Amino acid sequence: MKRVVILLLVLLPLAWGLRWAGQAFQVVAGYSAKQLCSGVFVSGFAPDFVVENDIHLSMGILGPLLSQLELNVDRERRQIDAAFLGQSAHAVARQGPGCVLNPLTPVAAPPPAGGARWLGPMVGLTESTEAALDPVLDAAFQEPEEGQRRTLAVLVMRGNKLVAQRYADGVYEMTPLQGWSMNKSLMSTWVGMQVKAGKLDLETPIAPLLDQAAPELARRIDPALNLGHLLHMESGLDFEETYFPGDDATRMLYRSPAMWTAAPGNGQRHAPGRQFSYSSGDTNLASWVWQQSLGQPYPDWLKESFTRRLGLAGMVSERDASGTQVGSSYTYMAARDWAIVGLFWLKAWQNGSELLPDNWMREAATPRPSAVDGNYGRGFWLNAQGKDFPNLPRNMFYASGHNGQYVVMFPDEDVVVVRLGLSSGYVASGITPLLEGVLEKLPALALIEDVQPSGQ
């Protein structure tokens, strides 16, 4: 018996370690396949650029083991295959919604080669080059000694005027760039548009909707959970926003064919509405609810109701293998389009919008009582208490994403700043000096007539 106990003490940690390693290797393969697919077939980057500046950046913790990552780019089939220490993944580029990781059904015929399909030129935007901002942009693209900043694009708008823009080598005005968690701010907006249309309500309960599609999930959640709780990140669902192998977020993004099921599948930890907990799982469940309200494929709705109404050149919002838009992470737009969306958010905060309910953006940029730091509203980050940006206005609000993605709105100054990049998690993106520098230079900029953008 003693030998059995000793054997178990040896084998159980070994089994746990092997299981953890398998999950970690699945994440490496899944992340690499997905990011390389979108980088090549959506953004139009060369494979080596994506591998060096995205995959190796994110997987640097692997050290020498990174040499075991195998990647294959099949341009004819528009597919990426990735393998790492016995685990594999593949991502396929589909026309319209970009890339899908590990699709459940094979793609019968690949779409024509090329990047994103653009709808046409942007409208209602005038341009200028303000030399006063050159030193600020110089600093934003300068690499710090301690590591890689990898700024890809910076744009500054004042009123309806693009007063500054700069791009890294290999990035162009129409290069679609990933927003990561800025998709959460978009999802809040898209839900608001359906609320305006009478198709959704923030009080919409989630359990009855789930009961029709996945009864086992409906039984795991609090009947009081509603759509507003999901957008405010106060669902109380037992979902951890950490990114270690086997954790909720990595399991959802790189191992789950239906990402919207991840958070409700874990059940409740707290009662809804009481505690703020940033959760990509909440947003992906909200994305599924939003999609049920559309009555048409979501790419068609986005094209008709959002991109054309705002005068955007185009947008690629990718889905998971179940067909649900990954509302937490996967929308790509040109930096200029991200700026136009920021202008829409700014003007909706200032004057309202015909696309959104009354006061929607004001409420979205108001701290929730559950967020004790006053830094989150309804899909937007806030500076109400000045903890993250003590030298910037308290009423600024912004969309933010992994690797240093930002669309920042300054209502009183009538300014939007866009910063996109592939910044290391260990190196500051430089967003604070960028924003402070822009506001410092405002008195030197010419006065600009305020012209309303499309969609107001």
What is this structure's SSE topology?
Layout (H helix, E strand, L loop, with lengths): L1 H40 L5 H12 L10 E6 L4 E6 L2 E8 L3 E4 L24 E2 L6 H8 L9 E8 L2 E7 L8 E3 L3 H15 L10 H7 L1 H4 L8 H5 L16 H8 L6 H4 L14 H13 L5 H13 L5 E2 L13 E4 H17 L8 H5 L16 E2 L14 E5 L3 E6 L4 E7 L9 H11 L15
Parallel strand pairs: 5-7
Antiparallel strand pairs: 1-2, 2-3, 3-4, 6-7, 6-14, 8-10, 9-10, 11-12, 12-13, 13-14
Helix pairs in contact: 1-2, 1-8, 3-14, 4-10
Give the termini distance in whole angstroms: 76 Å
Based on the coordinates given, report the CATH architecture of the largest domain: 3-Layer(aba) Sandwich
Number of strands: 14
Gyration radius, to the nearest Å? Answer: 22 Å
* Average of the residue pLDDT scores: 88
Estimate nothing, just give the exact number of structural domains.
Answer: 3
Q: What kind of assembly state do the chains in view correspond to?
A: single chain
Structural class: alpha+beta
What is the CATH top level name of the largest domain?
A: Alpha Beta
Major sheet size, sense and barrel closure: 7 strands, mixed
Helix content bin? 25-40%
Write a structural description.
- The chain has 456 residues and is α+β, with helices and mostly antiparallel strands.
- Helices cover 36% and strands 15% of the residues.
- The chain contains 14 helices and 14 strands.
- The chain has helices at 2-41, 47-58, 134-141, 182-196, 207-213, 215-218, 227-231, 248-255, 262-265, 280-292, 298-310, 335-351, 360-364, 431-441, and strands at residues 69-74, 79-84, 87-94, 98-101, 126-127, 151-158, 161-167, 176-178, 316-317, 331-334, 381-382, 397-401, 405-410, 415-421.
- The strands form 3 sheets. The protein has a 7-stranded mixed sheet with strand order 5-7-6-14-13-12-11, sandwiched between helices.
- A hairpin with a 2-residue loop joins strand 6 (151-158) and strand 7 (161-167).
- Helix 1 packs across helix 8.
- It is globular and about 60 Å long.
- The relative contact order is 0.14.
- The model is unreliable at 2-20, 111-123 and 448-453 (pLDDT under 50).
